[in-house]
Design goal:
Blueprint lengths: L6 E5 L9 H5 L5 E4 L4 E4 L9 H5 L5 E5 L12 H13 L4 E2 L14 E3 L20 E3 L22 E3 L3 E3 L9 H14 L3 E2 L16 E5 L8 H6 L2 E5 L10 E3 L6 H7 L7 E3 L9 H14 L6 E6 L4 H9 L5 E5 L8 E2 H6 L4 H14 L7 E5 L5 H9 L4 E4 L1 H6 L22 H4 L4 H26 L4 H4 L6 E3 L4 H7 L2 E2 L3
Parallel strand pairs: 9-19, 10-11, 11-12, 12-15, 15-16, 16-18, 18-19, 20-21
Antiparallel strand pairs: 1-4, 2-3, 5-17, 6-20, 7-8, 13-14
Helix pairs in contact: 4-14, 8-10, 11-14
Bound molecules: iron/sulfur cluster (2 copies).
One iron/sulfur cluster binds next to α1.
């Protein structure tokens, strides 16, 4: 069945100089030059609205607009729903998509407001007074003793030290390009934070960024070996991912080429499928075995992170993880990005990170084990104010991935799973990969993080708070607007005006 295209290419013919830049830049082959008519033409059915042609057209002759051609209005069956049924009736396949859940479900960050000091508790000027954004992730001892000379007597568990409470979340080499990984690794090193290998192993060129690298161990164990584990600053066990809780990962064979297959330690062209469960983990005791195996393999030098998706009983799960010996829990909300996920899973499974985070922080405090573990939250952290709200809700730090991709040039066209990212990020095609210059990519990431660091300081200064440590779990600094009693109760905050 011929489905009317979702987007229309609007070309201003009087401005078009037939330079054919759009034709050369589009990996989806939307544009072509008609020699006979001496005009540029388009096949809109292939357009994903990545905006590459619009951005690079030298005469601003192009515009991509959402088509207003709709099926007959129906409050139950939306245009999108009907088209998806058509597509599945044709292919018999699972619908695939990428990036995070785009549905209009509540974004609690936007319904939470931050306090500011007035009169009695004066604000702090971050330009003139010291403001501490450094954080240490890992177990904190109950008491600390010092020797007579003042030096620390207590042996501290391994800590991950970050110059600010933000890290680049897991994106595997394979799902994203070599140049995207290079940009993230370089930026993390320059900033004094960490990036995360994801489940694809660590390319040999990136071992030098080890002190700023989190190495991930997922159910497929791709690219996992002793040198890999020892190369990082922390090890992350991936139990789940916010964009696709309850299912494994899948890198199509077409992307498992060259260095990607070598790094993953799989044959070239074979599908890299990580199973939904870790086949050696069916209980917290099993998880504990893996946590301690990884610690043993790295001489107890590195903190171990356990990453889970935010799901219904997340507080109980986190309590178990905190008792498994893990040093850090990473919780990934349902809006978290992905290189590829079944659409139904992405859009219908999991819960918002805000509620999950608040529930976990409260549970661990109630059980008296909050300091046994640090909490990292991710899944659509979009700005410095989201970071500040997350810290006040109980996080020690945040993971960002979609925002990092945007900084590198992503236009959120949600077609990463096709491997034809026109911005050189979610692709392995050499002609596309080279479009992302790691010098520029890393500089843009550094700029973004420096901008957020300034904003975090300003927001903290406004509250009269001068360190992330003093902000963590400080829910008195938050108020809700337009939220129900139940939502406020779960978030543990008062309504604005109270
Ligand atoms: S890039 Fe712009 S000016 Fe060049 S052919 Fe395409 S529409 Fe015309
Ligand atoms: S990474 Fe590339 S393919 Fe994926 S959403 Fe961004 S621009 Fe589109």
């Amino acid at each position: 069945m011929n489905i009317y295209p979702e987007f229309e290419v609007v070309r201003n013919d009087s401005r078009c100089i037939r330079c054919r830049v759009c034709e050369r830049q589009c990996a989806n082959e939307v544009h072509w030059y008609d020699e006979d008519g001496k005009v540029m033409l388009s096949d809109e059915s292939k357009c994903v609205n990545c905006q590459r042609c619009v951005t690079l057209c030298p005469t601003r002759a192009l515009k991509i607009v959402k088509s207003d051609c709709r099926l007959r209005e129906n409050a139950n069956y939306s245009d999108q729903t009907i088209k998806e049924i058509y597509r599945q009736a044709e292919t018999g396949g699972v619908l695939l998509s990428s990036m995070g859940n785009p549905n209009p479900l509540p974004v609690y960050w936007d319904r939470i407001l931050i306090n500011a000091s007035q009169v009695t508790n004066p604000p702090i000027d971050p330009l003139r007074e010291p403001m501490e954004t450094k954080v240490f992730l890992g177990k904190k001892p109950g008491t600390v003793t010092r020797r007579p000379d003042g030096s620390l007597d207590t042996a501290l568990p391994p800590q991950l030290t970050l110059s600010m409470p933000v890290m680049f979340s897991a994106m595997s080499y394979g799902s994203i390009s070599y140049n995207a990984h290079a940009s993230l690794a370089r930026a993390a090193t320059e900033l004094g934070i960490c990036y995360n290998t994801g489940e694809g192993g660590l390319h040999e060129d990136f071992y030098k960024y080890g002190p700023n690298t989190i190495v991930q161990v997922a159910s497929g164990r791709f690219g996992v070996h002793k040198d890999y584990l020892e190369a990082g600053a922390a090890i992350e066990i991936k139990m789940g991912q916010g964009a696709k809780p309850g299912i494994g990962g899948h890198l199509p064979g077409t992307k498992a080429v060259g260095d990607v297959s070598k790094t993953r330690m799989i044959p070239e062209g074979s599908d890299a499928i990580s199973p939904a469960p870790h086949h050696d983990i069916y209980s917290i005791e099993d998880l504990r075995q893996l946590v301690y195996s990884l610690k043993e393999a790295t001489q107890y030098r590195l903190p171990v992170i356990v990453k889970v998706a935010a799901v219904h009983n997340i507080a109980a799960i986190a309590s178990g993880i905190a008792r498994s010996g893990a040093d850090i829990i990473a919780i990934d909300g349902f809006r978290g990005g992905t290189g590829a996920a079944p659409t139904r899973i992405r859009d219908n499974v999991g819960i918002p990170i805000e509620l999950a985070l608040a529930a976990v922080d409260r549970r661990l405090r109630d059980e008296g084990i909050r300091n046994n573990v640090s909490i990292v939250c991710g899944g659509s952290i979009r700005s410095a104010s989201d970071v500040v709200k997350a810290i006040a809700l109980g996080a020690d730090a945040c993971y960002i991935a979609t925002a990092a991709c945007l900084a590198m040039g992503c236009h959120l066209c949600r077609s990463c799973h096709t491997g034809k990212c026109n911005w050189g990020i979610a692709t392995q095609r050499p002609d596309l990969v080279k479009r992302l210059n790691p010098d520029i990519g890393s500089q843009r990431l550094i700029n973004l993080m420096n901008a957020w660091r300034h904003e975090i300081k300003e927001l903290m200064g406004g509250m009269g708070i001068n360190s992330i440590e003093a902000l963590r779990g400080n829910r008195l600094m938050l108020r809700g607007v337009g939220l129900t009693e139940k939502e406020l109760e779960i978030l543990g905050i008062s309504h604005a005006g109270e």
